Amino acid sequence: MEKTNYNTIDRLAHGDVLSRDEWMVLLTSLNADEREYLRAKAAETAVAHYGKGVFVRALIEISSYCKNNCYYCGIRASNRDAQRYRLSKEEILECCKEADSLGFNTFVMQGGEDPKQTDEWVADVVKTIRAAYPDKAITLSVGERSAEAYAAFKEAGADRFLLRHETRNDEHYMQLHPEMMSSENRRECLFTLKRLGFQTGSGMMIGSPGQTDEHLYEDIRFLEELQPQMIGIGPFLPATNTPFEKQSPGSADKTILMLSLLRLRFPTVLLPATTALATLCPDGMERAILAGANVVMPNVSPVEQRKKYSIYDNKKSTGAESAQQMQQLEDRLNAIGYHINYARGDFKN
Ligand code: SAH
Questions:
Q1: Is the CB of 75 inside a 6 Å radius of any atom of ligand 1?
Q2: CATH code: domain of residue 117
Q3: For 266-321, what is each residue's pLDDT tens digit?
Q4: Per the domain annotation, does 96 fall within a domain?
Q5: How many domains does the chain have?
Q6: pTM to 2 decimals?
Q7: Which is the closest atom of ligand 1 to the Cα of 112?
Q8: Which of 312, 313, 314 has most ligand 1 atoms within 8 Å of CB, for mutation?
Q9: How many CA atoms lie within 13 A of 116 on its CB side?
Q10: Is 114 contained in some domain?
Q11: SS3 246
């Protein structure tokens, strides 16, 4: 039988192991019709496993202080112009209360690596939330910490952890981060989180400076090895006052292609339509869901702080990106035949 790109897409959808060459073709050489075929297959796969309900997570951005200096990130330590805030435990609990009243069953606490939000402090916050909301899912995204700290977070009641590997390629990692950060440590953290029983999320930006299709291939291979329960991907977007402020943003089409490939390779993974994609294009959320994404993370941070968590320019935190506007989210999902699913949305095999 003649080997076409349609065959390759079908084989991916059937769970066949693809060669490196086949992956490179999928990453670089599909024409518009083939991409559309791939997208439809990916959407079908998501619906087969999760139906047309899209899980929602309440995103609480707990601090814009960070000790790190990732070249892409707007809240990097060296950015003197970044506006800084950190939420207190009480403020975080207020956000949880608000999220609960809006119907959310997952709280995600994400922040810079704020030295004042120590391991003990994070564990204590988790413990307090766990006591107040025994049935909610608690997700943390507070960067690289020690294995002991991760164990303490788990013990305190956290269920999930998001830590993107950013890029599997060591040289590329060094183009994106200063010397004191390492790709290896990041991976080590991810394997520790998995071992501790966290539902673990990894992922990467699409179109970050220096990224090649080979790097994306290596990212897919790494994700196969890690077997994360969640994969977060969004376009790189330039942030003012960072070394990458003049770089071009990643492409929406490439992000959509990657979402579909990841959906087919990891059929049951939890795959968010990210804020970065929604920031890059107005219909980014819909396009992501129609390409296999099945999660959105509306922002429930205090409104007066939202602008300050500026990891890239013009980051969206209104409309469907805001927890206070769930009707707008529901309407937009309905318009494409989907709806909000308020359940915890745990990973299922
Ligand atoms: N400090 C936490 C949270 C980081 S913000 C951690 O290290 O995990 C979450 C993600 O946003 C990052 O992992 C990165 O992939 C993404 N991000 C940061 N800056 C970005 C930018 N300029 N454009 C697009 N995504 C960005």
A1: no
A2: 3.20.20.70
A3: 999 999 999 999 999 999 999 999 999 999 999 999 999 999 999 999 999 999 99
A4: yes
A5: 1
A6: 0.98
A7: 1
A8: 312
A9: 11
A10: yes
A11: coil
